[in-house]
User: Fold these one by one.
Assistant:
Number 1:
Amino acid sequence: MVDRGFALESRLHQREANDLKRTLSPVDSVSERGYFAETSGGDLPVLESEEALVFASNNYLGLTDDQRVQDAARQAAATVGTGSAASRLVTGDTLVHHDLERLLAETKRTDRALTFSSGYAANVGTITALDPDVIFSDELNHASIVDAVRLTDAEVVIYDHCDADDLRAKMTERAEPAEPNGSDDPADESWLVVTDSVFSMDGTVAPLEAICRAAEEVGAWVMVDEAHATGLYADGGGIVQSESLEDRVHVQMGTLSKALASQGGYVAGSDALIELLINEARPFVYSTGLSPPAAASASEALHIARYGDVRERLWENVAHLRDGLEALDLEVLGESQVLPVIIGDRRDALDLAAGLRERGIVAPAIRPPTVPEGTSRIRIAPSASHDEADIVDCLESFQIVGEKVGLL
Ligand code: PMP
């Protein structure tokens, strides 16, 4: 069986032998959850301002205004400080970071997790630290993955969007030795397949099980960016959790800045992976640790996503909106909480977005070059904090403005 993995343990042993291994200082468990005093709950916030309903943000669970999340940030600022003031490896490591990382590892069902100052930094730090020989990347992967890949010396193979068969064909082709009996045997290389799970402009969901199967056939590792899925699926996890793929996906990455209502990124995986990142992920080593209020508010939001009913409310809103938009004969892409309404022409999309805005609905037009020519769209992303009346308001506005600009 070919193994194109990354042999992290032996890399770490080598570091240890050379006395180079860094560690985070051990922190006792935060048994009293001091920074996260339970609150009485309270009403869900209204996301929207008085004059507008926002249907375009990544605040999918509506938690940026949640009293409990805000209290967690306030308490962390008051008790731990507003900033980490140094790299985690110097003096920036706090109990709040460890509490969040424990909850992330529990949610992602991995040995451990590590936070970064952004999701962008998490992708750059992880991909450059792994330093693969070959990277197979979905053609629509996020810019932070694209940039991370550019910073490596890897050979890059782009496969068709969400197409596991194309991925398999490209891996099979690449697995042929360049020269029979030649010294460059691809079986000696480390291979990484990397994909977003939910694609934010198309709402598509990567076929992760099929991708894992294809990768396993050639011994490659799989890394999944769950930025737009974290907190929304099984027990507050992402697509990896909803498909029970924790043991087949080697690197689960995500951000704290969308459903988790905060700022920062994370990677969850094996003990060896996290040790490697602590030692070699430059945006972790050489950047100031996540701020304590950001870590504490993400923890509280994740706690709410795991144990509250907020996810159900989001998915009810998604179903209601999708049904209503399709009843208007609009083409709605995707299979996730992101509902791209395809308009086609960029001018039409702009007119529709402007008309919606006049009626107090914020849902911008997404145009080329962000999306291919002829597929301009309105990207609708409902939030758990929208109520029934908000959804009805959005649908009515689509109908009225759509008719006015001649699209319906
Ligand atoms: N990955 C994906 C798929 C994203 O959409 C984003 C943010 N737009 C990121 C990574 C980067 O996350 P952050 O904003 O936390 O840097």
Note: The chain is about 40% helix and 15% strand.
Number 2:
Amino acid sequence: MDIQWYPGHMAKTKRLISENLKLIDIVIELVDARIPVSSRNPEVDGLVGGKKKIVVLNKTDLADPEINKLWEQHYKDAGQPYVFVDCIKGKGIKELIAKIKQVMKPVMDRDKKKGRMNRQIKCLILGIPNVGKSTLINTIGGKSTAKTGNIPGVTKSNQWIKVSSDILLLDTPGILWPKFDDEVIGLKLAWIGSIKETIYDREEAALKLIGYLREAYPEKLHDRYKIEFDENTTDLEIMDKIALKRKLLARGGEIDYARTSEMIMDEIKKTTFGKISFEWPMEQL
Ligand code: GDP
């Protein structure tokens, strides 16, 4: 991730988002389905204020389907409209468009009664870097994307993308800053490959990842490295076993922790382990 967040930057982003919010009817908050809470900025709710909002969980192709089901229930219970998508394959996009219409229906019906016909629904995508905002904009716009050109009252740099006859999307997404100050959130962002390696300790991130995988996905950890471990094996011992299996040893024959950590972090980012989620709703209670 290239963006370094500092207070001035956040203030500017907040201002930009609140300016854009004036133009729109509904916010599409994009998060990563593998870490729906850690990949969002909780300040978004304050920023969005009274606007309607749909949570869109992206990269479902990488997330654990069983954990997705728990998140579905979580959003249902909270009365929060949500959609699961895979922006690369375009899965869930039709559902998203239907959901936008459904959420906006009461407003549209009210406006119709007031005689405001042919009103268009204006949407804004918000999310932290790397959750797939640009990919979603391209996918939802489709091939026939006809930019509608400048509309009076809209900043020149903003263009509207026509999603359907009655839905317009602002072509510039709102970029929120992730919550770096929370160590666990930072780790999860590192595991999904959203944080530049220079800003976290790779060996610590890899060791904590082993700690997570042995609890949540022990069979995947076993199958991937063909190693045996039980509740008495420490995380570091598991790392040693992985290093020995992969022959990641330094000259004197001792474990090369730097290379082992790099390999593990690389494999988790490349999703070699299969579909994995890194947080589930119960954790958030
Ligand atoms: P942005 O920073 O929020 O605009 O994110 P991008 O649209 O640039 O996407 C970040 C990365 O995630 C890119 O490498 C995309 O190809 C990838 N990506 C986006 N959507 C998906 C998805 O649904 N599944 C997978 N596997 N990757 C995705």
Note: Residues 189 and 195 are 6 Å apart (CA to CA).
